[in-house]
Design goal:
The complex is a heterodimer of chains A (187) and B (120). In chain A, 55% of the residues lie in helices and 10% in strands. By secondary structure, chain A is mostly helical. Chain A has one domain (3-184): Orthogonal Bundle (Arc Repressor Mutant, subunit A), CATH 1.10.10.10. A two-stranded antiparallel ribbon of chain A has the order 1-2. In chain A, a hairpin with a 5-residue loop joins β3 and β4. With 120 residues, chain B is of the alpha/beta class. In chain B, 18% of the residues lie in helices and 42% in strands. Chain B has a single domain (6-116), classed as 2,3-Dihydroxybiphenyl 1,2-Dioxygenase, domain 1. Chain B is globular. Classes of the chains: A mainly alpha (187), B alpha/beta (120). Chains A and B meet through α3 and α4 of A and β1 and β4 of B.
């Protein structure tokens, strides 16, 4: 797998509404369920489901009641992979702040699409091919939303056949380039 | 080496329900309560002996017992039963030593009343 593919995969693993907030908030809430649930203001069953998935993905360890030596000690701890993802999450959060359009990683494929454009894959089919598993519909919706929000430009190409070329807007280019650089150091 | 003080800590599934049990039914007082972190402590009738609670996603009933000394176990049982505490089984007696009555908190953690039979 190329470095570019590894970066895209890492950014894809951070998309979704709760993965990034959980990674960033777990330690400061002592690795315990209740403080985390209150801090994130998430429905308990939803937090449980997210934590379960993150355990299955190898990002977290769920300590059993027997493994916890005191009720105030963590219920969940980051694995080595989880700590790496937390660093990546910090980089994503920083780029979101710099772009200034709120959270972009909370929607599936949001950040991977911007990173793909940073890698100069500007045509619809090129973007689609570089993002393993994305559906044409979701790619189309995300590109349209990014265009509506002024994050990307859309240029009509006549040759070899009519199509669109998508590019990051100037003010988005630097934060995404920085994100790409930061993630490169982690993969 | 030691100073005066013992704290028993329990993981609990619902802090509010637990506090209602330990204060409303057992008559102890809340000395610390932080809903945002899911932590609380109640005192007992013994100085410097407190019980701490920490809310957890997964709770397993503790097999160790916290045992509260009483003067007369039958009277104490009647009093707690009047508050809605359910006792498990009959009063058990260890001859010449102690009489014991078992009950559990909302998470099934073992608790006991003990009346000493040993002569001081």
């Amino acid at each position: 797998m190329s470095k570019e593919e590894r970066i895209l995969r890492l950014s894809q693993e951070l998309t979704g509404q709760w993965t990034l907030p959980i990674l960033l908030s777990l330690d400061e809430n002592g690795g315990r369920f209740t403080p985390l649930q209150k801090k994130l203001d998430i429905v308990p069953s939803r937090l449980s489901a997210n934590l379960k998935k993150m355990v299955a993905d190898g990002l977290l360890l769920h300590l059993s009641p027997q493994e916890r030596r005191h009720p105030l000690l963590p219920e969940y701890v980051l694995t080595e992979k989880g700590r790496l993802h937390r660093e990546a999450a910090r980089a994503v959060e920083l780029s979101e702040e710099q772009i200034g359009h709120g959270r972009l990683s909370d929607k599936l494929w949001g950040m991977p699409i911007l990173l793909t454009l940073n890698f100069e894959h500007g045509r619809f089919q090129e973007i689609r091919q570089s993002l393993d598993g994305i559906t044409p519909r979701i790619l189309s919706v995300r590109l349209q939303n990014f265009h509506d929000d002024g994050l990307i430009s859309k240029q009509v190409l006549e040759e070899p056949r009519p199509s669109f070329l998508y590019r990051l807007e100037k003010e988005v280019k630097q934060p995404v380039k920085q994100l790409s650089h930061d993630l490169t150091s982690l993969v | 080496m030691y100073k005066s003080g013992v704290t028993v800590w329990y993981s609990v599934s619902n802090l509010e329900q637990t506090l209602e049990f330990y204060t409303g039914k057992l008559g102890f007082e809340v000395v610390f309560h932080d809903p945002s972190t899911g932590m609380a402590m109640v005192n007992t009738n013994t100085k410097d002996c407190v019980i701490g609670f920490s809310e957890a996603e997964t709770v397993e009933p503790a097999t160790s017992s916290t045992v509260f000394e009483v003067i007369n176990i039958e009277e104490a049982m009647n009093s707690l039963a009047g508050n809605g505490v359910s006792f498990i089984g009959e009063v058990e007696q260890i001859p010449e030593l102690v009489k014991l009555a078992t009950f559990v908190d909302p998470d099934g953690h073992n608790l006991m009343l003990a009346e000493s039979l040993a002569e001081v």
